[in-house]
Amino acid sequence: MLYQLSYPGRLSGPEGTRTPDLPHAMGTRYQLRYRPVNGHVPILSKNNFLFWVYNISMLKISDLRVKIDEKEVLKGVNFELRSGEIAVIFGPNGCGKTTLLRTIMGIRKPDELSGKIELDGREIQKLSIEERAKLGVVLMFQRPPKINGIKLSDLVKVFKVEDLLINQAVKKLDVKKFLVRGVNDNLSGGEVKRSELFQLSLQKANLYLFDEPDSGVDIENIKKISKHIKNLVTEGKSALVVTHNGSILNYLKADKAYVMMDGKMYCSGEPREVFKSITRKGYQGCVNCLKRKIA
Predict the structure, then answer these.
(1) Strand partners, 261
(2) What are phi and psi of 174, to 5 degrees?
(3) Cα–Cα distance measured from residue 16 to residue 10, given in angstroms and rounded to the nearest whole number
(4) pLDDT, tens digit (0-9, with 9 covering 90-100), for 210-251
């Protein structure tokens, strides 16, 4: 993942120190060396001076409108996800959460689509699902399909991943016994989620989209899923997690939360604060109470 200078000249270093004049102009891109901190990224220049830059958005959605079967499902969605962040989206059934993820992934071509979907500064709304996957966008389905006749071990070979990495993922997610079965066949709800997460972890992804990974899952599986999501979101990667009941927040530290209603993002805030407000006052009460700026 690359980051870009927000402006030329001197940039503040850690603890208020100043760095030498930067050797490049605005727009110069550098390889990420450290995780973001409060929207800034500490990196090393070629001459080994440490300085800070503002990071480019991993995902930026601007006035996204989608119509399916003559019904407007997304009605001007706006939000931003920065590199290294985990964001959660809350919302009642039918508000457009799943449609949003599928639109970002490019799974279904809507009847009408307007607005922008930007990945690392590049518009992708006109790209195919294959092209988006090559750019590192992956989706974990809420209800993934069963694939009879194809073993999970056979599917894994398509990813062309080293055996060492496969074995590590198998151990972390405890999916060894799934390998000889058909993909997602004869598995419980939690086992299906772990199988899907196993497949995602073997792909070269930058942006992970999770559609209710805590739905229909027991506590032990939620713990495993949460831990693995956290491990996946390493330097320069990001995750967008749709959750209905919020139970995943007990084990996964998210950076921000959005409340989606009727095809729009109504407010944003600190994840636990948002979830607490939803629990106490319902979605409409949360919107009226928080009234946060979408950022």
Answers:
(1) 264
(2) 55, 60
(3) 12
(4) 999 888 778 888 888 888 888 888 766 899 999 978 889 989
- Give SS3 for 3: strand
How many Å apart are CA 116 and CA 124, to the nearest integer?
A: 8
Phi-psi region at 192: left, alpha or beta (left = phi > 0; alpha = psi -120 to 50): alpha
Give the domain ranges of the chain.
Answer: 2-55, 58-290
Phi-psi region of 38 (alpha: psi -120 to 50; beta: other; left: phi over 0): left
Q: What's the pLDDT at 1?
A: 36
Contact assessment for residue 243 and residue 214, using Cβ atoms and an 8 Å cutoff: yes
Query: What is the torsional sign of CA 269, 5, 136, 33?
Result: negative
Classify 58-290 by CATH class. alpha beta
Region class of 147: left (phi > 0), else alpha (psi between -120 and 50), else beta: beta
Q: 90 forms bridges with which residues in the sheet?
A: 259
